[in-house]
Amino acid sequence: MTRTLRNALLGAAFGLALAAGPAGAATIKVGVVAPFSGPFGVAGKTFREAIEVYQAQHGKTVGNDTVEFVYKDLDQANPAQSKALSQELIVKEKVSFLAGYFFTPDALAVAPLIDEANIPCVIFNAATSAITEKSPRYVRTSFTLWQNTVPLAEYMAKQGIKKAVSAVSDYGPGLDGEAAFKTTFEKHGGTVVDSIRMPLKSTDFAPFMQRIKDSGAEAVYAFLPAGPTTLAFAKAFNDTGLKAAGIKFFGPGDLTQEPDLPALGDAALGVTTTFNYSRAHDSAMNKAFVAKHKEMFGSTDTVTFSSVGAYDGVHVIYQMIKNGGGGKIDGAKAVESVKGMSWESPRGPLTIDPDSRHVTQTIYLRTVEKVDGKLENVEKEAFPKQPDYGYKVAK
Ligand code: PHB
Q: SS3 for 93?
């Protein structure tokens, strides 16, 4: 052996030993991209809190490896910035996983990166069906608009509603919601009399309320990304007299997310939605989740759908690390190893569909009611084993 080669090998071994630390233990990093500031800052907060709850309950290690989360703030839907931050996480932080992503365009932007770097990307929220078709490295633990809307449109038709109008934010998930609603509602005998698309950045909803009124519909199906958007839309619905006029208000549960219920106040009472998670879900596991959150953060005001999107996402990442047997993660093998995985979540039973890599789950019909003086989404009906009805639907 030449001296230089020997030195190089020794150097490499020494370097490895340093990186691996004592007894082969490594630090495995997970990069989380989400809004931690700005109008949607609550979403990032729900991710971070849920990650901390999971680690408090399950520990920060998997085998000999320590799992460390690295956070990057992306305050609004901004695909170019999402790509830049994710690239920084891969190149500088050397993360083994990417995770988070509240808005669809931000999740979509990383497809070429995760393919090239062979890194799994676990989506905690972004809900447009087509995302997981864009790279085999995506796994999603949230919901899709199709998944929530199909049971809702069927329920609305069964209630005897004949004429409805849809009003959605004009981007990926809104367009999925609009299509899922029209297809399903009309299949069950209803008519969609108008399909309203609202710019994502709208803050003045009065003109859209007028259009809903003019449509002559008995009911509205609405989707906007949860946050100041849904809050302003729901308030406008009441303030412009649509509620008083007897128009019924439906949508996926983004509309009545728990952090907004105090601000919506009694105006939210009676609003019926479908969704994958309610803070009030009655199970031992959810009670433990909510109690641990309260113990750690002093209140449960922010516990909502994006909390369980993150909590279950961390569970999947832990399982991928376990399946890899320690040390360096092979992204393709890691994703392969969780296809078909089933577990119990605070929201109910979950399975990762091996084709769509999206969770099949129970969708609940809920109505906002007061429980011990606090507004909650109270579950009324459960639709088990709902797949992503939008996966590979021709667009
Ligand atoms: C999305 O951009 O995919 C999205 C954002 C917020 C939601 C739902 C979907 O509440």
A: coil
Q: Which residue has the tokens 């999402």?
A: 82
CA distance 156 to 179: 16
Helix intervals (H) in 97-192: 104-108, 111-117, 145-158, 172-187
Q: What are phi and psi of 256, to 5 degrees?
A: -125, 40
Strands (E), the chain: 27-34, 61-62, 65-73, 97-100, 121-123, 138-140, 163-169, 191-198, 219-223, 248-252, 272-275, 342-345, 348-352, 359-371, 374-386
Quick check: CB of 226 below 6 Å from ligand 1? yes
Q: For residues 302 and 311, what is the distance between their CA atoms, to the nearest angstrom?
A: 14
User: Which residues are CB-neighbours of 302 under 8 A, at least 6 positions away?
Assistant: 42, 45, 46, 49, 258, 259
| Residue 298: burial class (beta carbons within 10 Å; 0-12, 13-18, 19+) | exposed
Atom of ligand 1 nearest to the CA of 226: 10
Q: How far is the CA of 143 from the centre of ligand 1 (A)?
A: 9
- Please state the length of the chain: 395
| Ligand 1 close to Cβ of residue 253 (< 6 A) | no
Provide the token pair at 243: 């509620």
Listed residue (210, 147, 195) closest to 173, CA to CA = 147
**Mutation pick for ligand 1 pocket among 33, 101, 102 (CB with most ligand atoms within 8 Å):** 102
pLDDT along the chain (395 residues), means of 10: 42 41 80 98 98 98 97 97 98 98 98 98 98 98 98 98 98 98 98 98 95 97 97 94 95 98 93 98 98 98 98 98 93 98 98 98 98 96 98 83
